[in-house]
Amino acid sequence: VSFTRTVLSTDLEWKIEQSTDLSSFGPASEGVDYEIASRQALGATAERITLRILSPAPSLFLRLRITRSL
């Protein structure tokens, strides 16, 4: 699983959430459910994050929740 994010916005929080049924999502824990396999710089303003799933289920769905911290 990969996603691209900006490195310029320091007020954004990036959280991985998981679900087995697409109805209810809960937090995924780094080191338990996933690990960061790689970080690739995309110029001076962005990076690509690639995750490795550590606890796969027969049907596992992930989403990225981005919130602005105040």
Short description:
The protein has 70 residues and is mainly beta. The chain has no helices and 6 strands. It is 0% helix and 57% strand.
Can you walk me through this structure?
By secondary structure, the protein is mostly beta strands. 0% of the residues lie in helices and 57% in strands. It is built from no helices and 6 strands. The protein has strands spanning 2-6, 12-19, 26-27, 34-42, 46-53, 61-68. The strands form 2 sheets. A 3-stranded antiparallel beta sheet has the order 1-5-4, with no helix packed on it. A 3-stranded antiparallel beta sheet has the order 3-2-6, with no helix packed on it. The chain starts with a strand and ends with a strand.
Point out poorly predicted stretches: none
Could you say which structural class the secondary elements and strand pairing correspond to?
A: mainly beta
What separation lies between the terminal Cα atoms?
A: 28 Å
Q: What does the main sheet amount to?
A: 3 strands, antiparallel
User: In total, how many beta strands?
Assistant: 6
Query: Which bin fits the share of residues in helices?
Result: under 10%
**Count of helix runs:** 0
- Tell the overall outline: globular
Beta-strand content estimate = over 45%
Q: Which strand order spans the largest sheet, edge to edge or round the barrel?
A: 1-5-4
What is the chain-wise order of helices and strands? EEEEEE
Computed over alpha carbons, the radius of gyration is 13 Å
Arithmetic mean pLDDT: 92
